[in-house]
Design brief:
By secondary structure, the chain is an all-beta fold. The chain has a single domain, classed as Sandwich (Immunoglobulin-like), CATH 2.60.40.10. The protein has no helices and 10 strands. The strands form 3 sheets. Strands 2, 3, 7, 8 and 9 form a 5-stranded antiparallel β-sheet that branches. It has a 3-stranded antiparallel β-sheet with strand order 1-6-10, with no helix packed on it. Strands 4-5 form a two-stranded antiparallel ribbon. The two termini are 19 Å apart. The relative contact order is 0.31.
């Protein structure tokens, strides 16, 4: 599952929670020293045909952690649907 969200000014790190458990720390990427506007994360090995709840927590540059954000949801494809293999399991910035 690919997750994509808009980066916020002054935030370079995000904690990603799935179903109430922190699953990743995602860092905002930069290109030529300029922070990218969106952040993408790929999750592999999820159960087919299942709905997952995600939340983000901002980690500010001074180390302060914000509140958990509003939940958003992702639904994995059914097992019999054509899927592409998971190639990476890391953060990737996109502009």
């Amino acid at each position: 599952m690919y997750l994509l969200w808009g980066a916020e000014e002054g935030i370079d790190t995000y904690e990603l929670y799935r179903d109430g458990k922190m699953v990743a720390t995602v860092h905002r990427e930069a290109e030529d020293g300029i922070p990218l506007m969106n952040v993408r994360y790929e999750e592999c090995g999820l159960e087919p045909g299942r709905k997952y709840e995600y939340r983000l927590r901002h980690v500010f540059r001074n180390g302060h952690r914000g509140e958990l954000g509003t939940p958003f949801y992702g639904l994995t494809r059914a097992k019999d649907e054509e899927t592409q293999p998971c190639l990476i399991r890391k953060k990737v910035g996109i502009d």
